[in-house]
Automatic annotation (TrEMBL):
It comes from the Bacteria. Residues 294-696 form the Glycosyl hydrolase family 95 catalytic domain. It comes from Botrimarina colliarenosi. SUPFAM superfamilies: Six-hairpin glycosidases. This is Uncharacterized protein. Residues 24-267 form the Glycosyl hydrolase family 95 N-terminal domain. Residues 708-763 form the Alpha fucosidase A-like C-terminal domain. GO terms for biological process: carbohydrate metabolic process. GO terms for molecular function: alpha-L-fucosidase activity.
Amino acid sequence: MKWFSLAIALVTSVGSAEPGRWALQYDTPAEKWVEALPVGNGRMGAMVFGGVAEERLQLNEDSVWTGGPHDYAHPGAHEHLAEIRRLLFAGQQREAEDLATREFMSLPMRQQFYQPMADLRLKFEGTPVADVTDYSRSLDLSEAATSTSFSVEGLRHRRTVYASFPDQVIVVELEVDQPGQLDFVATLSTPHDRHEVAEIDAATLQLTGLVNDAEIGSGDVAEGQVRFAVALRGVATDGECRVAEGALRVTGATKATLLLSAATNVASYKDISADASARAMADLEAASRRTPTAIRQRHTEDYRDLFDRVTFSLGEPDAGVADLATDDRLVAAKERPDPDLAALVFHYGRYLMIASSRPGGQPANLQGLWNQDLSPAWGSKYTTNINAEMNYWLTEPCNLGESNEPLFDAIQEVAEAGAVVAREHYAAPGWVLHHNTDRWRGAAPINAADHGIWPSGGAWLCQHLWLHYLTGGDEEFLRSTAYPLMKGAAEFFAAYLVEDPRNENGWLISGPSNSPEQGGLVMGPTMDHQIVRDLFANTIEAAERLGVDEDFRRQLAELRARIAPNQVGQHGQLQEWLEDRDDPNNKHRHVSHLWGLYPGDEITPDTQDVFAAARRSLEMRGDGGTGWSRAWKVNFWARLRDGDHAYRVLDGLMTLTGSPKSSHNGGGLYANLFDAHPPFQIDGNFGATAGVCEMLVQSHRRTADSERLIELLPALPTAWPEGKVAGLQTRDGFEVDLEWRDGELTTCRVESLRGKPATIVLGDRRQSLRLDAGETLSLDRQLKPL
């Protein structure tokens, strides 16, 4: 595993610019963690509080976890599989769950927790908070930088914080506008008990530590095995910089530069033999050889290459609204129109993805990259019955294919662990992942039998592999990475599906399983069948394109035809289970049986009865729920072609929560726009961005002869009468730019990246595309070429 470093540079050349249009902005420092502003380089993150007399940067590194390498499989669990199924078929659910709890679950029953690493504090002695004027702090999404500025007794302070991926550094720039008036003390601390701070040389401190032992639940205690090192060095200042008494002091300066590097002993999910201190010092030395100006330039070029690929705006912003502090803006938007707020939330999701998922690092977890708690909610793990997947819905349409690389690396690792689980728990080939995994790639069912035994997490993740190929068309990726993983997941389900003895149709069903977090352990949940049909179809098509495994293709096609189909129930709803027992008053946050509507593609206007049933199910479930649940519903309503309803749910998500300024307590956004489950989960941010994409462009359908349909503005809400978007990507490699006014398309530009045929669709109008790779076509509102 590649390590990373964090650099803090303080210079005068940056930090004076006002934030641009796409910025979060505030007029007071953060008091709570969910008010602080996030920066990240994919490997390390910092939450910046913007304090006056004391600045805090709460630091994370993505390999700092409790525990260590571990095989979670339960040897011999498969010996009880037949009996668990017999009990479920006999209606003895409690007995089946009791047996599964004793004999079928992960060892131990729980997985490990993502951990905070350290804190950097900068104390500005003699700075009277009571005399502060003209305070502002912001996060400029276009520059990936936070800024804090204020005046104290006529002295103007400026600070900027950003995270550089190319140099694996986070940069903090501090300056004052009067010579020699900058004095501060920098210290490092950690919430982990076993640590020490050493003075390396006259300008360098190093904090080393060992992750705490942790109670992870069910009576299990995980011994801390991850070691980390953080090194702080003063490298450039026009004042005096010295290390003494466990602190770094800068005095008599106008500007200063610090470098902070960090690393762990985690070499891979199976190996913790790396030297954390040596790694940290190596990165510190490398960062020290670059000037702050060079670091900033490389950061800006790298970040904007990603962020500038997509643009989106909804008319000209109202200055009276756009100038408000962001938390006040969330409140004000409920009283007067602020369509640009939705665009800000859209861009924030893209920013958070770039900041939390870059090649060489770990995938974005439940909190992305940022966590200050030793016992975070749900362990801040990877929950694969919706949350981990929702994190990555935006990557392909938002032209951020590189951000998938950590996810794909993790899938390859979890497939190795999942092959052991497939063998021990199901006596099956291939690989399987249940509803959670962690840094050590646990794949066995955890927590409790009634929701932990859900074997479709790996199959769902395979959809991301296929969509990445469909969008980018990388044949080598398909051959070497995607298809082997898809094939392994399909091999598992080919062995796992079982004929249902309760009906005469010869249907194959999934089980033991559950409809995530509802109904307990069952046989035949609808969601499983939709996911497995999708997996089999994609694996068949991938094998055809590669010209391999003809016999296996035939086997999958035969099995797929026998999987229990979607069922319409007594309320006109899409049934969540084979049994018609949906409760019309059930408002649960999971709407898992609509997976085939989104992110799947088997429920479309071409399947009218099931399409209508999906709508009925969504109406029954309601518009409320947690942040991520609302985000999923935005995507559902977009697929249902109801833009106003999609916007209604999105507007509900864009509600200030957890603040004295609002009485709202859940399913909204915190002051820093983090998704409030509550508590914080980042999937709602990512899911909302994906939902906006679905409202503007859809490409999941094909014609009868398998030609791609690119549908323009399929769910445009009346709340967005004008706007423009550029750079959205579709399946089969098209890039789409749109502009509309008065709710009607004015112009469209389509570029073919792969030379595939397609049909552009706008309402009842269609235009065939036959473009060579690299060729562009512009269309008017009638879809006529310009």
